[in-house]
Design goal:
This is Helix-turn-helix domain-containing protein. The protein has 166 residues and is mainly alpha-helical. The chain has ten helices and no strands. The N and C termini lie far apart (41 Å).
Length: 166
Amino acid sequence: MRAFAAHLRWFLGEHDRPDSALRRPRALAATEALFADYFDALDGFDASPKAREASVDAARVREAVAFMRVHSDEPLTVAAIGAALGVGVRALQLAFQTQRGCAPRTVLTEIRLGRARERLSEPDAATSVSDVALMCGFAHFGRFAAAYRARFGEAPSDTLRRTRGG
């Protein structure tokens, strides 16, 4: 709930700014997908015992991860991933928690961070950190930079600067 509240505060503050990243279609789509996942998680928060018993095997979780890798540049929701595999949202969330110890959204974020690092490590002249963040599904640049630093031990701008030889 804290993460949802923080994202909502950011969205409301960002929404009316004329220079907002949310003016870019990819950023808005990424934000919509994130909020859809929050609402799906809240909807299944008090899942019935029957829903808790529903199982998704390890092969389906691997399929979900493979699907995320292929479609990581798209504004994915957990519902879309589940629909592509024929699995319910709550069952998929429970399977990831059981088999990987985290939510599907966490795995998607890791995949996207890896993709961002690849793009920052092989830049062209026009590559910018904000464009890479948006291409990889991150609309909130501050959260992207913090997650990138936590994962790779340096700021995304440092990776870009280093790979450009500067």
